[in-house]
């Protein structure tokens, strides 16, 4: 029966199952990149929570930045392995501040209740 379920699973479901079967940790290089991003001009890391001791297997965090710095922040974030992020502008129609919620490592995650990287 399991084989027939695997055959019916979509590509995304198979990738999700594969990712969930592997243990992951956040590398020192990725942690270093996140710290460097927090030091960008007009960018601040306002929240961070690590999961896992002694090896960090997941990081949740929130950056606050300006529209001018969003491009530099996003460019840096996509270089971090296993990252999911959401962007929230404040000040519609002319954003003055932008929050970027991130999750690095761990299982496919949910950010603010919405499924990211997999099905709910």
Task: Please name the defining characteristics of this protein.
120 residues; alpha+beta; 6 strands; 4 helices; Gyrase A, domain 2
Notes on the structure:
This protein is of the alpha+beta class. It has one domain: 2-Layer Sandwich (Gyrase A, domain 2), CATH 3.30.1360. Helices cover 33% and strands 32% of the residues. It contains four helices and six strands; from the N terminus they run H-H-H-E-E-H-E-E-E-E. The chain has helices spanning 2-8, 11-21, 28-38, 67-77, and strands spanning 44-51, 58-65, 83-90, 97-105, 109-111, 114-116. The strands form two sheets. A four-stranded antiparallel sheet has the order 1-2-4-3. Strand 3 and strand 4 (97-105) form a beta hairpin. It is globular. The two termini are 23 Å apart. Residues 113-120 have low confidence and may be disordered.
Task: Give the gist of this structure.
With 120 residues, this protein is of the alpha+beta class. The chain is built from four helices and six strands, in the order H-H-H-E-E-H-E-E-E-E.
């Amino acid at each position: 029966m399991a084989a027939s379920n695997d055959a019916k699973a979509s590509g995304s479901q198979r990738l999700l199952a594969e990712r969930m079967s592997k243990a992951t940790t956040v590398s020192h290089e990725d942690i270093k990149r996140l710290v460097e991003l927090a030091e960008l001009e007009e960018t601040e890391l306002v929240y961070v929570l690590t999961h896992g001791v002694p090896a960090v297997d997941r990081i949740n965090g929130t950056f606050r930045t300006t529209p001018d710095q969003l491009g530099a922040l996003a460019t840096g974030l996509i270089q971090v392995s296993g990252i999911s992020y959401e962007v929230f502008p404040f000040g519609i129609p002319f954003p003055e501040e932008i929050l970027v919620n991130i999750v690095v490592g761990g299982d496919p995650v949910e950010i603010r209740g919405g499924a990211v990287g997999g099905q709910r």
